[in-house]
Each structure stands twice: as C-alpha cells, then as structure tokens.
Design a protein that fits this description.
This protein is an alpha+beta fold. Bound molecules: ligand CKU.
Length: about 600
Amino acid sequence: MANKMLYPRQTLTRSVIDLSGMWKFAFDYESKGNELNYQNGIPSKIEVPVPASFADFFTEKEFKEYTGDFWYETSFYADKSWKSKDIDLRFFGAAHVATVYVNGKEVAYHHGGFLPFTININDVIKYDEKNIIVVKLNNELSHTTLPCGESLVMKNGKKVTKPYFDFFNYSGLIRPVKLVITPKSSILDVNLVHELNGKNSKTNYEVFTNTNDDVYVNVFDEDEKLVASSKGKKGVIEIENTKLWKPLNAYLYKFEFLIEKNNEIVDQYFLNVGIRTVSIKGNRILINNEPVYLKGFGKHEDSPVSGRGYNLPFAKRDFELLKWIGANSFRTSHYPYSEEIYDIADKEGFMLIDELPAVGMLVSTRNAVDAATAAKIKPFFDEEIVQTVTLKNHLNTLEECVIRDKNHACVIAWSLLNEPDTVGSKKAVPYFEALFNRCNELDPEKRPRSFAAIIASQPDRCLCTHLCDFIMLNRYYGWYTEGGYEIEDGLVRLDEELDKWDKVGKPVMFTEYGCDTMQGVTRLPSVMWSENYQVEYFDGYHKIFDKHESVMGEQPWNFADFQTTEGIIRCDGNKKGVFTRDREPKMAAFVLKRRWENLPINYKGKKD
Ligand code: CKU
C-alpha cells in the first residue's frame, strides 16, 4: 500500500514529530513559483500558522479572496538513528491540490484537501544538513475538483473562485503535518468486522504488513486487563461478556497489534475499538440490532480566524454543546473532518454520517437557492469530463476516506455526495453505481450508503435514491419556498412528500432543514430571520416527522453559523446555526434540547 493511512501514533516502535507552527508563505499570482525555483525555498518574509486556512489572517481583501497557486515552507533536522527506519511525511489535509518538494525534489502530488496522504522520504532526506519541505497548493475550483465550482479571471487579471456550494472556499495547510518514523517492517493497515453472539462477540480481523514476521493481536479492556489474544495476520478474536459500543454510552477496547521476530517486538500499533454492528431492517437503522433514532446536526469545521483549520478547542466545545442539547449524532457535512474529531466521537458515543467532499455537483453558483427551489439547471453528469476525470477523483477520495475511517465505531454510514443533480441526466446513474459499489468493496463492515438529496430529488423523480440503503433529505419548505406566513403550505408539501417516501420502505432521515436566524432578533408575530421564526419552523417540521413512521432521524441545518462566499442572501455568512459562530445558543437551542432529551434512543422502534 503506497499511501499509509493509519493515524500516526507514538508507540514503543514509532515516533511522531509534529511540524505545526509558523511556516513561510507566499502567494504566486502568475504561477511562476517553479520558474523562480520556489521548490528549493520561497523568498517570502510572510509567515502563517499551520494548521489553519490562510484567508482570515490578513486585512487585505485580495489576500482573503486569493485564488491560484500559493506556497508554504518549513524545515527540520533528521536524527541519525532514523537511518534504519522508514521516514514518512504525512499531510493530514492540504486544500485543495498539493505538490510537495523535499530538498527541492518533487515527492508527491495530491488532489483533495480533506484527506491525508503520506510520502516516504527515505531517499531524499539529508542527515548532515537541514531538510527543507516546500508545498505548492492550488485552491481553484472546477468541475473536476471535490468540492466543485469554477474559477474566473477578473478584468484586473486576478483570479476568483465561484463555489457551487455554500461555504467559504477556505484553503491552505488546514490540518497538521507530521513526520512519522516507523520500523522498516511495519503494520500498514487493519480491517475489523464485528459479530454479536449472545453476550459475546467475535471480531474478524486482518492485519496488513510488509513482512512475513509473526503478527500478534492483544485486546485490553478499559481497565487495561487482557481479555483476548490471537496470532496470525488473519483471525477471529472472541470476547466474552462483551461491553458493546452504544450511542452516548461508548465502550472502547484497546487492540494492540504487534510484529515480532525472535521474541522481540519489531512494530507495535494501537487502535481504540468500539464493538458494535450497524444494519438496516425495513425502515429502521439498527445499532447492535436495536433501532436508533438519530438526533443531531449537519455541521461544518468552521471557526473564527482559523477558518477551516483544525481547531481542537472548538471541537471540544462543540461536543460539550452536542451533549448538552441531547444530540447523539452528526453528519460531517460537507467533507471528511479532522481525524481527531472521530476519536472524540468514538469516546463520546456519537453516531457519524461520514460525508465525502462531493458537494456542488450541480451547475449553479447560487447552489443553495437553486437547489432548494429546484430551479432548472444544466445537467452536471452529462459532461464527458465529469464521467472521466471527476469520477476518477471521486473514487480516489472515496477510497482514501473509507480506508482512513473504517475502524471508527462512530462512523455508522457513508454519505457519498451532497445535493447532486439526480434528475437532469440519466448519466448520473452509472456514476452513482460506480461509487456505491466501490464503497461496499472498500468497507469491510459494509456500512449503509446514501447521499443527501435536494428538493428536486423527489421520490417519483430521483434517478438515484434506489441505490441508497437509507434516504437522506435536505428540505427548506418554509425558507427558500413558502417562507414566512406561507410556511403552513410548505408544511403540507412536506407532509405530502413524506407520504410518498413512507411507501419506499427505507429509513428516511432529515440531513438538512433550517432557516437563517439573526441572534438577538425576536418579533411578535414572528418574521423570517427572527429567533422565534426558527423555533416555529422546527416545531412545524417536528410535528410532521412525528406523524411519519419512516422518519428515523433529524439533523437540522446547521449546528452553528458559518462563513460563506459573500452575496445577497448571506449576511456575513450563513446564519442557520442553532448556535452562533462563537457557539452561543439561539432560542431554538433550548427548544431542541427539550425535545431531544425526551425522545428515547429507540423512538419509533421497539415499543417498550
Ligand atoms: C444550505 C438544498 C439546499 C442545500 N443546502 C446545502 C448547504 O450547504 C447550504 O448551506 C442548503 C443553506 O442554504 O443554508
């Protein structure tokens, strides 16, 4: 496996060096960096923090909106003891297209800003002088990038991006960069599939290594007590009286993987493993064969100043707010999040719908409005380049995402696209089939797959929902259509639509419904944009959800206000948050809390 995906952990045999900090930085308006030899070192005096997106540091508008090539540089010294090891450079997220140079040599080219890539640098590293890492990034959007959009050149010669999606096109080294030093004989990947057997469990495992040396697996409980062991690269681990991973009641076993030679440990790696199953039966989603009702949000990785940058303090605050409000789940809209967030979700027992950055597959720079009102749009999937290059990038991103996240108990489903055009062209069908099939091939657990469907994707019109294991709906009756006084009509449409979905016989969940709300604006009677309109809007939706047996999940849009491209429908960003961008509650937060705290986990499932 060329691209080692395992999360880098420090163990008896492995070391990790975090290269976070201030990196040199340069914009490259004319893409002349290579000609000017930037790959050997950039001449700039500007420095920016890594990880972060660059946009919100500067006071100049042209820097915030910068589109094109830009460069980063840092350096490190190598320890001579590494000579007998493998030295990998791991980028946790470089948005969106990266070319990496170490000591002037190109060592990697990677497409996609939200998944990691690892480069072996044994052959270029220097032990007698400083090593220079230079990264060229590009943040232009097109029909072949994930996410999609277009890039234009203004009359003054500067480029500008037009996202086909509703979040700011934050870019840069948005996640950490680390050196990972592993033994030459090492563990490359692990697959785990759990089965429940009365009070006990069986875990089918496979360990991938680059050696024929012996592999051992030991399993420890949370008290560090050894509860099971096995020898061999493949096998079955049986645990008695298994403590299962359950929503908001997580239990994690520590799986230790070892390579041994002549009774010596050659490599050691750990995974925190939640033992649980995920399945679908009729219109219910089952965790450990028990029906679950999902409560939570569509979110963003978005915070002031850091932009889309990895922000552990904000992640911590978000989890505390999610627990406070009675949520048990969220969707990683609209891209795979930082790996550390999945670790927290594993520990806290949150159920995640893991989404690919396949957003904007609908030709419209007014995506939010056009998608929500089902405006006529040029079919995206008709384009030759989409069927070839975009699909290739999409499948590659899918592979990286599944391999990265497959061992997280928190990941209960995959969202392969958000609001694609599934009515405009029949050519969407083979494109979707390729993704859905590949997802099952890649995922040892074969988790449920779906995509978030826009309003145009109605039960009688959508060409692709038949591929979904469960249905995810983004609906805005009462906002983009039938707003304000007319919301009553919108709710009738919602009810009528759900009558049709009920007949499909699959679980249906709402992955978006919401309305822009300015914190502090309250009106009697309510008006759109006021806090009490948001409350009435949610109450209206929930009454309808409660009538329909197939609705098994509700994730309002959005957890918090977030930054978007500026425009006439956005006031300093999208204000559909139930919390503000600095994570303070709007009135709706208290209403959702009251509802969610009273909805049992098996709501509409088994009658107790
Ligand atoms: C949201 C059909 C609407 C699409 N949905 C996508 C999401 O990214 C937007 O932020 C709409 C909105 O308009 O707030």
